[in-house]
Amino acid sequence: MLQGNLRMALDPVVFAKEALSFDPDPWQSHALRWNGKRLLLNCCRQSGKSSTAGVLALHRALFYPGSLILLVSPSLRQSSELFRKVTEAVRKLSQQPLLHEDNKLSLTMENRSRIVSLPSTEATIRGFSGASLIVVDEAARVSDELYYSIRPMLAVSGGKLILMSTPYGKRGFFFKEWTEGQSWEKIKITAHNCSRISPDFLKEEKSTMPDFFFRSEYLGEFTETTDQIFSYESVQNALSDDIEPLSLGD
Ligand SMILES: Nc1ncnc2c1ncn2[C@@H]1O[C@H](COP(=O)(O)OP(=O)(O)O)[C@@H](O)[C@H]1O
Ligand SMILES: [Mg+2]
After folding, report:
1. Is the pTM of this model over 0.85?
2. Measured in angstroms, how far is the CA atom of residue 51 from the centroid of ligand 1?
3. 107 domain-assigned
4. SS (H, E, C) 145-157
């Protein structure tokens, strides 16, 4: 019985390798074994974020009965893709967990664990409670409103929150947490740290795309967007604590 395998239960990396034939990169192993509450992963395109999220979700669901795991993505297409990572992983298991309920974006196991993959546009997302793990994939493209509305779900459950993303400019909660957040473990993975992205491919990408885009997509930099009139630094420099607010009318 898979769930009775103590080595796999205690170590998601053993589970990934032996049950899923998935050999995690060092940073993926770190994320899989990570034991804290708040993890920020600033990772380049194609580094393996969604694959890692899928393994994490499945491990928690199998070995922690009654867990609710929420996977949040910016769009319906992305939440379907992420959920497919989970179902593909389930299919690799030598013993199939009994599923009570299974649809395109969620599954419930016999041990009462649920994995739900939702687009951030879905209004019902706010109705969930007691999640033991929330993973926000491509978090830089999820709205602040959604982020601040899902955080309270963790208050009672004491659950874990993982934000994983490629940067998307100096804006939004992902940038704010990356630069100012105190309670996070932060990991940055650039294309140079990813063995599946070859130097030749990177060279070609660099020569093809605008520099700000390349640095954002592959080097984990929060670059300015082209439609930004004032740079982040110039706005920050223009702000001053020394000036009294203007008071009108009294
Ligand atoms: N540790 C790994 N070993 C082999 N292939 C991997 C590994 N991690 C990711 N991949 C593969 O790399 C590709 C990109 O992975 P994905 O998780 O979709 O990346 P991201 O979400 O960061 O863009 C996929 O084809 C995936 O199967
Ligand atoms: Mg992805």
Report:
1. yes
2. 6
3. yes
4. HHHHHHCCHHHHH
Q: How far apart are CA 79 and CA 166, in angstroms?
A: 16
Which amino acid, one-letter code, is at 165?
S
Count how many domains the chain has: 1
Ligand 1 atom with least separation from CA of 46: 23
Joined tokens for residue 60: 């928690």
pLDDT per position as a tens digit, 110-147 = 999 999 999 998 778 888 889 999 999 999 999 999 99
Residues with CB under 6 A from ligand 1: 23-25, 28, 43, 45-51, 196
Tens digits of residue pLDDT in 77-118: 999 999 999 999 999 999 888 888 778 899 999 999 999 999
Residue 243 placed within a domain:
no
CATH number of the domain at 101, please.
3.40.50.300
- Count the helix, strand and coil residues of the chain and give each as a percent rounded to the nearest 5: 45, 15, 35
Residue of 17, 21, 46 best suited for mutating to test ligand 1, as the one with most atoms within 8 Å of CB? 46
Expressed as residue numbers, the domain containing 129 is 2-237
Q: Has residue 39 been placed in a domain?
A: yes
H-only helix segments in 93-188: 144-150, 153-157, 172-180
Nearest ligand to the C-alpha atom of residue 44: 1
In-domain check, residue 182: yes
CB within 8 Å of 219: residues ≥ 6 apart: 44, 190, 191
> Which ligand does the CA of 218 lie closest to?
1
Dist. CA 191–CA 100, nearest whole Å: 40
Q: Which atom of ligand 1 is found nearest the CA of 23?
A: 1
